[in-house]
# Entry
Amino acid sequence: MNATAVGREAALGEAATNEPTAASPIPLGILVPGLPHPLLCPEGNEGWQRVRDGFAAARERIAASGADLLVVYSTMWPSILGHQLQANPEPEWTHVDDDFHYLGSIPYKFRIDAEFAELAVAKARVRGLHARTVAYHGFPIDTGAVVALKLLNPDNELPATIVSSNIYANRTETTVLGKALRDAVEEQGRKAVAVVVSTLSNRLVTEPMEPADDHIHSLKDDEWNRKFLEYLEKGRLEDLSQLSRQFHDEARVPKVVAFKPFWWWAAFMGQANLYSGTVHAYEPVWGTGSAVVSLEPAGESTGDLEYDEDDPEFYSGDREVLDLHDAPSMGALPESDGD
Amino acid sequence: MAKGEIVMGALAPHPPHLVYAENPPQNEPVSEGGWEELRWGYERLRRSLVGKEFDVIIVHTPHWQTYVGTHFLGVPHFKSLSVDPIFPNLFRYSYDLTVDVELSRAIHDNAAKAGLHVQMMENPDFRIDYGTITSCHLVRPEWDIPIVCISSNRSRNYFSVEVMQANMVKLGKATREAIEASGKRALLLSSNSLSHRHFTEEPEVPEDMSQEHITNHHQYLWDMKMIELMRTGKTREMVDIMPDFTEQTVAETDAGSLTWLMAALDFPEYPGEMHAYGTVIGTGNAIIGWDPASA
Ligand SMILES: [Fe+2]
# Structure
């Protein structure tokens, strides 16, 4: 289902103004891992404690940023019917992880900005996406989002919303989603923190293990993680976005079609390498590459720009043939607008 | 003690739409019906169980996904609300169920002996997945029989469908042996769809049946191929081609449930009783029962 031509023009008209500056509506981005160990048992392993300390450092950045909203994109919340945004004003539950239930229960009560979520859905629709809010008592908020909000926003200082990761979405759709959320931030005149919940390498240790023996699953995963962290420290967010497909092939267990968080992150914060980055922690959590990183708009770029992929503003792809859609041999689609 | 036995094994898929369409008092959303072919199929499956006595329902579920081993419910009673994360508009179900922890642990111990990584889930706050609830509700809406619930280990993601299947064959055998040693009579459920490519849009009225069809012909052909093998007792062949089927149709057999069921039944050479085939938001779903007494 395509949005109207009017809607599309409106979307395109607002495009290409999202260079990150000091006055950016997204003054801060935070990458955090989603496994529950740093929240529930940081004492189990010195590395888990360092990740926990990394969350605390990120929390200080949030406090200093002047932000009034947290937008959390969780790779641990899969959706099928387009993109879902949490809009229950006060979701309250006791969460238990599917795998790590023995670490304990996580009671939570969050403060969600339902009005922002509704506006973001409207903006996503204007850009051709399917999106909807979810606001149901007992909706299962994923472990990653719960951990992130508990550790980054423990007293609900800031209102938040949580964005799902569509299992069929690829780069175009994810990029457009990031831009749609930015549209909403700009329209409300907000200052938002972009919180990405994702590990780098995601390969868990799948055998029983003593906490003290935790390690990145393989040297190769570790090397790819460190390469990504090097780029993050230099603030080269768009370069990482462009490297996502390779990272997916090299360092990710293919649970989903693509490694999407950096696409979303770059589109939401501004597709550039104009950031300054700080790695607050990088440790194994049950084999995964778990990093806490913050990114802030910087005055000048520290990396060369070398973008290979296009920059879609509007989504009109046929979700039934996503991969074919990108293949040059398929030729132009009848309505090949945007991508 | 008499030797325990499997009184029936069934492919019992869990689209929450089917519970939604039935409007049971436990589910909050209200529907105008829909997906009758599949719901009537579940009626036929329930009818085929009349006269069979069973002490426990053992369900292998794709929606309790574990990466570190295979997990088993280890708390005797659960009562809470299950909200489907994909279709929360259709499924918000208040459940109240009991678990046969003794048998659960026996299967766990047997699986460990077979070399699988296993774990008991003993956190009373744990929420039962919607796949388990849907399949169990549709097979036994009275909820008067304790269950054993087995998680889906995602070895398919880490290795391949073949590795996953090899593990599920071990798990199925471990399950059968534990049942036999327990003296109990068990109904086994494989809680999964066949082809599993969804539409990414929902009709305004979710139960608008003018919108329902298989996502594509290719998936339909594959589903029919698998069903034909199950109907004609060629279950080993069916399991042999399952890696291709799973890859080609993004099938929910990636969870291992159906392979586990076939192994627990020792790869039936008698026909599965076909109760229904139908689609739900584009995915292919079959309800099939295997009655060892008909062997
Ligand atoms: Fe499912």
The pocket of fe (ii) ion is lined by residues B 14, 62-63, 131, 252 (CB under 6 Å). Chain B touches chain A at residues 64-69, 71, 80-83, 85-88, 92, 117, 119, 121-123, 125-127, 151, 154-155, 157-158, 198, 200-202, 215-216 (CB under 8 Å). The mean pLDDT of chain B is 96.
